[in-house]
Amino acid sequence: MLRLPAQAGSPALTLGLAVSATAWYLILTLSGSVSPGWEAADLGSFRLWAVLLLLNLSAGAADALRQGAQGLRLCFCLAALFVLFSGAYVYLFRFEGVVGLAEGEAYEPVPAMFSAMDKGPLASIPALSFTVTRVDPDHAAGRVEIVRQGVRSEAGTRWERIGESDLRYLRSRLAPLVTVTGRDKGELERSYVKLDLEPPGKEESFMFGTLPYEFYLRKDRPGKAGAKPSFHLNVRRGKLSLFDGPLAVGRKAPVQGVEVAILEERKFAMLEIRSRRGHAVFMAALGLLALVAAAAVTVRAKGDPRGA
Amino acid sequence: MPQQPKVQWFFSLIFNEGKVTLYGHRDRPPVSGALTTFRSESVVLQAHLKRHLSCIFICLWALPLAGLLSDPPHFRYAFSRVLPGIAETGKVREAVTDFNNRLMDVYASQGVKRAADTIPATTGMRHRLFKDAGFLEMGGRVLVYDLASLEIRGVEMGGPLTATAVAREEWNYQYKNDRDWKSVADVRGTGSLFRYHLVRKGGKWLVLKYEPVRVGGKGA
After folding, report:
1. Are residues A18 and A53 located together in one domain of the fold?
2. Domain-embedded: residue A307
């Protein structure tokens, strides 16, 4: 029983756990089973390995303390534990999301605002407060002007710090204003639909909560310079196609007693928002571990002057 | 218990004319040979080799074993890249077929909960079907679907939890009055290619959404 901490905290076991976790992370990533980053930490097997590593390193640190004259091993165990804890903190509180905001639209920290989101189990949506006042599309160098607490600032394609989060401009698109009008009931729906229809020919679908139809929209290739953009609309209900044809801006398409029209387009920007709490500490922990590991290799290579 | 004598291994990496050679020496450090171009290569790693290698070997096999118990889709998907036979394409095909068979019940029953609950679809998709049947009921109509033919053309696994299937379908449909089930229109037929997006949830493949496929291009 007295030898148990020494066995449980053996460097060989540390090496085995670390090598197997790294090797299988690479295998799963290369096979496309998990995407690079923190997704592997969602798997039960990797969480189990993290717990085993935690126990192994704790036992190793305790063993080094008990035996004395093993300062380097103690430092290594503590640095590795620091990496584990700071990594767990980053994983639990990370947030990344993409939000589409039109000119004049204010950001709201609600899930429905985001078109894509990846967050840790304990993370919340960043509670930012800003309004997009101008979208300046310029491909690689595009930017948005935002107003935050009365202060005007710009965000480009590089990360800008806003409160405890970061924000950057991804791209801008044009949101068509789609209206659906009933014969007897007047206007049933009127919304700017934020779709990514670039390049021309790319198709996206959308639905309105109050209607049973699915709308598939794509932009036709631009004709003469200055001509109004032209769309292709396919309206479906279940397995049935109800309308499939071109739809110019301002024209109406009749569908089962209602009329669908696109009246205009409005610029909107796709913004990426992220929150990386504890990331700097995690990187520092990794650096510290690398330093301790380098020191350990150097001492081993040159031989411990104390003969330990 | 007698203490086993410690065996130490010394390794040296020899760099010579662009080639790297690894030499192992038991119990004594290597002596630099004539081929060595510089002296700093002498001892790179000193370890209890057998013990370390056994630990690495056991851990390397233990992790996928734990993974097959706790995260079977991810590890099965990784292994299916070299063993295509273990991919879940058969289950995806079954889910698409079952979805279309049960879709007829959902519409015929005007979206009763029992029919909607049995269909292999996500909550969002079930809600969509339920809503459509409800809209028809509000208009005093029942849409009777009849699946004439279903041919699944291909299944592509997008990852351990996502898959796409393309199917050629032919449907007959007829609108009926919801009170007496008298026909209010003729029986019509439609045939299309559909792309199904499926997700794996709770050990089952569920239809997330389906969309028409335009021949010769992506989308409708």
Report:
1. yes
2. no
And the tokens for B65? 């074993």
Nearest CA in chain A to B69: A45
Q: What angle do CA A113, A118, A124 make, to 5 degrees?
A: 70
A24 and B190: CB-CB below 8 Å? Answer: no
CB contact under 8 A, A33 and B64: no
Contacts of A83 (CB under 8 A, 6+ apart): A282, A285, A286, A288, A289
Q: Verify that A135 and A157 share a domain, yes or no.
A: yes
d(CA A158, nearest CA chain B) in Å: 31
- Identify the domain containing residue A31 by its residue range: 4-94+278-302
A149: left (phi over 0), alpha (psi -120 to 50) or beta: left
The verdict on A76 and A29 lying in the same domain is yes
Instruction: Flag whether the pTM goes above 0.90.
Output: no
Say yes or no: B9 contacts chain A, CB-CB below 8 A: no
Domains of chain B are 9-70 (no CATH), 88-212 (3.10.450.240)
CA distance A59 to A77: 9
CA distances to A7, A15, A30, A75, A285 from A20, rounded to whole Å, are: 19, 8, 15, 23, 21
- ipTM comes to 0.82
β pairing state of A165-182 and A186-192: antiparallel
Bridge-based pairing of strands A240-248 and A252-255 is: unpaired
Q: Do A33 and B77 touch (CB under 8 A)?
A: yes
| Same-domain check for residues A89 and A100 | no
Whether A143 and A212 share a structural domain: no
Query: Digits of tens for pLDDT over chain A (308 positions)?
Result: 445 555 777 888 998 999 999 999 999 999 999 999 999 999 999 999 999 999 999 999 998 888 876 788 899 999 999 999 999 999 999 999 999 998 888 999 999 889 999 999 999 999 988 999 888 876 567 788 888 888 888 888 889 888 889 999 998 888 899 999 988 788 898 989 998 888 888 889 999 988 889 999 998 877 666 667 789 999 998 888 999 999 988 889 998 888 999 998 888 999 999 999 999 999 999 999 999 989 887 876 665 554 44
Domain-embedded: residue A169: yes
